[in-house]
Amino acid sequence: MRTKVVEKEVKQRAIELNRANEDLAQFVNVALHDLKAPLRGVAHLTHWIKDDLGENITDEIRGNLGRLEAKVKNMDALIQGILEYSRAGKSSPEGKTIKVDALIHEVLDFIGAGDDVDVEIKPEMPIFTTDSIKLSQVFSNLFSNAIKHNSSANKRLVISSKRKGEFYEFTVADNGPGIDPKYHEKIFQMFQTLQAGDNFENTGVGLPIVKKLVEEANGSIRIEPVEGGGTAFVFLWPATFENAK
After folding, report:
1. Which of 41, 113, 125, 158 could be joined to 173 by an S-S link, Cβ 3.0–4.6 Å?
2. Rounded CA gap, 220 and 146, in Å?
């Protein structure tokens, strides 16, 4: 009898939590939408000021307006980032049998990885059933991050995989500037920016989204240094669709 009461309470708490999460998500969407409206107004205003001043605009005014426009764009990017993070992982899991090497090629094509990026996909990529949409989001954000923060003329990505118990361990390694170990946790936090000397700036939400998706799939992610320079993002992803829910 006691067990049934506890089960009923747990189900009720789950329903209440789900309802609260839905209310919070709706509030975030409405609030951020309302924030975008005045930002658009400020952006339009700067253009109107430039048009009104015409040839009479001074270098100082032009510079100030340019800085204002940059601030507006940055704020708009932050709002969009919050929206993307809040929506990440919201879709219902859909199992699909995929060839991971083919999925990686699709992602690289989607993000527009150029000819200046040398990509090596190791031959041991698995074929398995998983939520391909969420896995592609993880790869997309990791690839985009690696390419964006690599100033080398010869950018390089190496993607590998191996089976580890009930998981596949995927590694995305690059030849970029590397990340100081003391920042390995910080870069997974929302809107964190490292010092310029670290050659890494995280003003978006790509890596926080990666961490969120991986952990919601019951996996984990960590950072390792690459011999000779660079960074490797190593994440565990369930080898069976049932364990990824």
Report:
1. 158
2. 19
